[in-house]
Amino acid sequence: MIAPEELRAIASWSRDLSEAEFEEARRGISFRSYGKNASICHVGDRLESWTGVAEGLVKMATTSKSGKTATLAGLRAGAWFGEGTVIKAEPRRYELVALRDSRIALMRRSTFLWLFEHSAAFNRFLVHQFNERLAQFISLAETERTLDSTGRLARNLAWLFNPILYPDLDRTLTVSQEELGMLAGISRQMANQGLAKLASLGLIELGHGSVTIIDLERLARYEA
Fold first, then answer.
1. Which residues pair with 104 in a beta bridge?
2. How far apart are CA 99 and CA 77, in angstroms?
3. The pLDDT value given to residue 61
4. The domains spanning 4-136 and 147-220 adopt the same CATH topology
5. Terminal-residue alpha carbon distance, the chain
6. DSSP assignment string, 87-152
7. Cα 82 from chain centroid?
8. What is the pTM of this model?
9. What is the CATH topology of the domain spanning 4-136?
């Protein structure tokens, strides 16, 4: 059973639960670790758990029949996802890949459904979660069609700092240019050039292996 302080640290939604709901959540969560570039699940797999990123960085992606891969979302520590798949009890429609060594929290389906049926606080969180993810995927469709590589990089970076999905995190993320390139679907060199351009515009500040957001609103709306 996960410790109370650890659950509160990795899951902001848990802090609004009643005592009984909180204990039910604790009993239903286990952990699994994955190395860099390891596959967490493939399209069609039945990963019958609600999933959270306790540590690390994960890419949610899909691959066409021709072999082209498209990133749907980057998921940093604090992210919880897959609720639609759990509710509908269907195979995963996307693949998950650990971009660095990652520790994944897995809530069993029976626990998730109990909270879904009994907890008003949990359902409020899910409504906000669905709303933000919908906005993210609408933005993704726009990004793929209208933005250049720097624009795609800016949008993907901004989503890693979404205040609804990541309410606890500050404006600095330890992340490599390679990882950002994989999330945006661009090369490391293009990611390096894009980051330099965003920094020159005062949207971000670059550190040694880190990015600090200076103006999240402008970053999220960036267009070349």
1. 32, 53
2. 12
3. 87
4. no
5. 49
6. HHT---SSEEEESSSEEEEEEEHHHHHHHHHH-HHHHHHHHHHHHHHHHHHHHHHHHHHH--HHHH
7. 10
8. 0.83
9. Jelly Rolls (2.60.120)
pLDDT of residue 136: 76
May I ask the CATH class of domain 147-220? Answer: mainly alpha
Q: Which amino acid is at 135?
A: A
Decide: 50 and 112 in contact? Cβ < 8 Å: yes
21 three-state secondary structure: helix
Q: What tokens were used for 110?
A: 């029976």
Question: Helices 109-118 & 120-146, crossing angle to 10 degrees?
Answer: 110
Going 151 to 188 to 73 to 174, the CA torsion angle's sign is negative
What φ, ψ does residue 128 adopt, rounded to 5°?
-65, -40
Distances (CA, A) of 128 to 13, 63, 163: 11, 28, 11
Q: Which of 173, 148, 145 is nearest to 159 (CA)?
A: 173
Amino acid of residue 157: L
> What is the overall mean pLDDT for the chain?
90
* Domain definitions of the chain by residue range: 4-136, 147-220
